[in-house]
Amino acid sequence: TEKWVVCNQLGGGKASALSADPDLEHMKLVPWAGVAARVGVHLPSSERDWLELWKPADAGRVAVDGKAYCFLPLPVGTSFPVHINGYFELSSNRRDIWHGDDMAGDGHVRAAWNEALLRDIIGPCYARLLATCARSRDFGTGYGVLEGAEEQHFTFEHYFLHLLPKQRNVYGRPWAVLYESFWRTAAKMEVLFTPCRRGSWIPPERAVVLPAQPAAERSDSVTAEIEAEVMATLIKADVSAVPMDRSFREALLDAGIGVRIADPAFLRHILADRGACLGRHKPGGREVVFETMDQALCLLEYCAGGLDDKSLHRLHGLPLVPTGADTLGRFVCLQGRKADVLATLRSMKFPPDLCLASVEAQDADRVDLEASVAWIVERTSGGPRAARPVSHEVGPFYLCDEEAADLLAGASRYIVPQAKLPARIAAILARKAMRRAVHNVFDCAGENFADAISFALPTAWRNEEVVAYDGTPEDAWFASLWRYLNAHPDLIGHMPSAGPIVRASAMAAHGKAGPTPRLEQQVAQLSPGTAVVDTRSIPEEVVRFLYAAGVRTLDESVVDLSTAPAQIWQYLHEGTLDGVLRAVAVSFRAAKDSSELIRHLQTLPAEVKDEFRDWIIQKSAMIGGAAGRGVMQDENRRILRMLPIFRAYTQGEPEQDAAESGSPDSSAAQLEDLPRPPVQPCPPARTRFVRLDSQPWCHLLPPTPAWIEGALFDGFLRASSTSEDRLLQLLGSTSRPLVAAFVENVLGLIVRQRLNPATRDRVMLRMLNQLPDLHESHPQLLDAVRRSKCIPSGDDGSDTLYRPSELFDPAAKQLQELLGKERFPAGHYHEPRILQSLRLVGLQTDLNWHAIREIAQLLHASAEAMRTAKEPDQADAAASSQAAPADNGASPYSGLSAFHSLLSKHGAALLFGESTDGEGGRKGEGAAEQEPVLPPEQAIAVGGNLLQYLDADAERLFSVSENGGGGGDGSGGARLGSFLISLAGSILETAEQREARVREEEAIKKSKETVRQLRWVPILRDNDEDDVMLPFPAERQKSPFERPGRLCTGSDAYLYSYAYGILKVSVASPALRDFLGLSRSTEAGLVALQLSQLSKRYKEIVSQRGDDTDLVTKLNQNISSVVPRLYQVLNAALSEGPGSDVGVDRLEKQATEQEILHHLADCAWVWVGNAFVTVSEVAFAGNPSPEAAESAGKQREYLYTVPADLAVFRNLLLKMGVRARFGPSDYLHVLQKMFQEGGDPEHSQRSKPLSTYQLNLA
Question: Is pLDDT at 33 greater than 90 in this prediction?
Answer without folding.
Answer: yes
